[in-house]
Amino acid sequence: MAKWDEVGQELVKKLGSVKKESTIQKLAVAVVEQIRESYEEPNSRRTPLSKVRKAVLEAFPDTETQEHSWQYFTNKGKGNIERYQHLALKYLTLSTEEWDAVGDEARQQWKAQQQAEKSEIQLEPETQLEKQPKSQTKKKSQTVKSTEKEITLNDMNNISQLQLDADTQAVVEAAIAHSGISLADFVRKACQVYAKTITGKVKQFSEDLTAVSTEELKSDTYKTHPGRAEELTRRAIYALEIHNNNCTEKSQKWMITQTAIQSLTGSKPATIKAILENYKTRLDDHNAKHELNAYDNRKGGGRQIENEIDLAVLVPNGLDIA
């Protein structure tokens, strides 16, 4: 008997006394991992996996109605015949990346089945009952409580269950290896860190920056603050207006543009562009008042706007801006 036939038979023996879905999942995933370790190329894993699945199917044949708590309903593959299969078959599968390597036809068949099974899992119990053939609905309703099993975070023992893209999965695997903690604990800590980041950002958005000095606002202390660019842009516009209004010669003036604001604030062009949309009328009126155009900012002699206008001096804070 070939190695993978033996592995399949050994799995069948273990499944014979198991009814809990989480345990069935662990047994099936362990076999898949064994196949991955034995074959470096994804394309080589399809045949051994098929042998294991065949062993399970022979030991636990499909049925037209649900006869055991360890079965699940499917109508994918086999001519879309509606049937009940052993839960192990749901987890005896390769990852998306692996199936991408075995050819178009096999890949499309597998993806269609995975999407269908995912939709079935997400449906409410009542909706799943409606999907079943009418002749099976009554029996399904009697057994649905016994087949329902919530998969908890602790049940996760394979990173492929997170359905990450290949690059992200590689980074996460390396991080988990360095951390020395389980996948479940890593996910918990990752959620905790990200949640704190989001709530921190929300808190920052509501923070009033008008009293913060311009010098401090331009420092690294506020570099990642979500309201920094908006507040600095507001101050830069006001500074340019003050400067131009106090100039006696047109050659001293600067047209208020996106580039000018960027030079004074150091913010990203795309961010400034979006912010300036709210100031369009104000800027158009000011530039028209002083008869300024883009050519007025092309000053000779190496003159740069940031060398002639000190934002921190003209507008030390945002308290008195009109």
Number of strands: 2
Poorly predicted spans = 117-131
**Succession of helices and strands:** HHHEEHHHHHHHHHHHHHH
User: What topology, given as strand order, has the largest sheet?
Assistant: 1-2
Shape: rod-shaped
Distance between the termini: 86 Å
Q: What Rg is obtained from the alpha carbons, in whole angstroms? A: 32 Å
Number of helices: 17
Q: β content, as a range?
A: under 5%
Number of domains: 3
Could you walk me through the main structural features you see in this protein, from its secondary elements to its overall organization?
The protein has 322 residues and is mainly α. The protein has three domains: 3-147, no CATH class; 152-204, no CATH class; 214-314, no CATH class. It is 58% helix and 2% strand. It has helices at 3-15, 21-38, 46-59, 88-91, 96-100, 104-122, 125-131, 134-147, 166-179, 183-205, 214-217, 228-246, 258-265, 269-276, 280-289, 305-308, 311-314, and strands spanning 71-74, 83-86. Strands 1-2 form a two-stranded antiparallel ribbon. Helix 1 packs across helix 3. The protein is rod-shaped, with a radius of gyration of 32 Å. 22% of the residues are buried. Residues 117-131 have low confidence and may be disordered.
